[in-house]
Design brief:
The protein is an alpha+beta fold. The chain is 28% helix and 25% strand.
Amino acid sequence: MTKRILVTGVGGAPGFDLVRSLQRLGCKVLAVDSDPHAPGLLLPEVTAHVVPPASDAAYRAGMLRLCAKARPDAVLSTVEQELPRLLGLRRPLADLGVTTWLPPREAVTACGDKAGFAAVLAEHGVPTPRTVLPEDLDRAPDGLLVVKPRHGQGGKGVTMCRTREQARVLCELTMAPIVQEHVHGREFTADCLIDRTGRASVILRYRLLVKGGLAVVSRTFNDPDAAACVRATLAATGVTGACCVQGFIRDDADGRSRVVITEANVRVGGGFPASVAAGADYIGQYLRGLFRQDVDHGRLAYKPDVTLTKYVETLTTSEGKTR
């Protein structure tokens, strides 16, 4: 039986590529976004829908109305800000016959708040950049500093500076900021799938070229230390389902931890097609877990040194008014 999957956030790379991957697996996809100009709404053979953003009071009614009408078999979200709202919709969605696979609320909270995430990792002994809030800026480490939104996504609003005075000014210009030490090294993402028993598969890829927070060139690799650090992060936060973890492998550890974890996102990563190209049945096994089938972790094995390059694609052109 062909599954009908509703995918949210199709204006971003994670949602856009998730739609395509699901289609390749034979699924019918309902592509959903709050922006009527989201490119994923223009993908061939999708059923496109526009819903209110998760921050809007009309979001709950809009999603339930859509699911009652379209009757998808499941909902997959690629918008982290929407996850707390979806957690509150699990029961009414289940009453409509819609399956969800959402992480625990504590995991959503920990991963959605970069200050809280750093505190959780520090509590569990997982190496992470030293992090302070603006009121504690005098305790910021010396050297390069990174100012970023506490609840940001996609690399938006991330700025580097050299002094605490510069960081103080940037904090005035950034919504709910945090300040972190800058970590030198090779940046990586781990595409992770954690089944309902807590067993995790980890697929590592270097972020060789990053634009706007998205790894447009990725190369898979093996590193036992990095994999162990990622697994410790998953255990500390309690994430289940699909997740991507980001970090750095220091060029010169100089007595410090060689691997440093910077963030975790409770959704598929924007560069997950690199893991699929390397042989991992990432989305296929994600679907199995979604519908409460056993995840075959053996099918999540992958080859190192597989490089994937993303590019901008023109989907359509038109004249006159658009949606």
